[in-house]
Amino acid sequence: MLSVEGLESAYGDSRILFGIDLAVARGEVVTLLGRNGMGKTTTVKSIFGLLKPRAGRILIDGEDMAGRPSHLVARRGLGLVPEGRQVFPTLSVEENLVATHRGGRGAKWNLEAVYRLFPRLKERRRNGGDQLSGGEQQMLAIGRALMTNPRLVVLDEATEGLAPLIREEIWACLRAIKDEGEAILVIDKNVDALARFADRHVVIEKGRVVWTGTSAALREAPEVKDRFLHV
């Protein structure tokens, strides 16, 4: 469904990505791993049209969307849960969700579906976005992305800064999303949790892909974690 080929991106004269290749098939969960500053968020911004690539292709169902505006990328079925959550602080939980709803034939994500996934959001549906805990804001950010009825959900730092119990709740909800058949591209530092959840992994170092493989292969390659993932 998504294929990134030879992606190169920069901020001004400062090059960040040097030929990134990755792919996500329908219903597959793929991670993008690496230490801070290695180019993970830049890759996400490039995919979503928030940063225009210098070179490479970003294929969605075979159509090259590199450099296209973000709203066109979203219409092709990509939903983003951004780093830092970025919920609308002055809107209620329900208004945050309704604001991004995109229905149509076969659409399975609506308010009730999101509330079933995240009962806590239903309890807090009248609260403003700035009245939620960090974990609740992350649930809202995920729910907001699902309300676009995407075919691929991209999560940038899925559980960053969350308490252990809340992290487990987020992982459980992501497994439920996977069980619904959604494709997921996820960035997170919790490698052990990702290895239990994801199908494949892409590790980047200084803007280049240095390792790819399945969860089983990652568990059997401690040198990959030691060299490229541990601080």
TrEMBL record:
Residues 2-231 form the ABC transporter domain. Belongs to the ABC transporter superfamily. SUPFAM superfamilies: P-loop containing nucleoside triphosphate hydrolases. InterPro entries: AAA+_ATPase, ABC_transporter-like_ATP-bd, ABC_transporter-like_CS, BCAA_Transport_ATP-bd_LivF, P-loop_NTPase. Gene3D superfamilies: P-loop containing nucleotide triphosphate hydrolases (3.40.50.300). The keyword Aminoacyl-tRNA synthetase does not apply. It holds the Pfam family ABC_tran. Keywords: Amino-acid transport, ATP-binding, Nucleotide-binding, Transport. Coiled coil: none annotated. One of its GO terms (molecular function) is ATP hydrolysis activity. GO terms for biological process: L-amino acid transport. It comes from the Bacteria. This is ABC transporter ATP-binding protein. It comes from Methylobacterium platani. SMART domains: AAA. The keyword Nucleotide-binding applies.
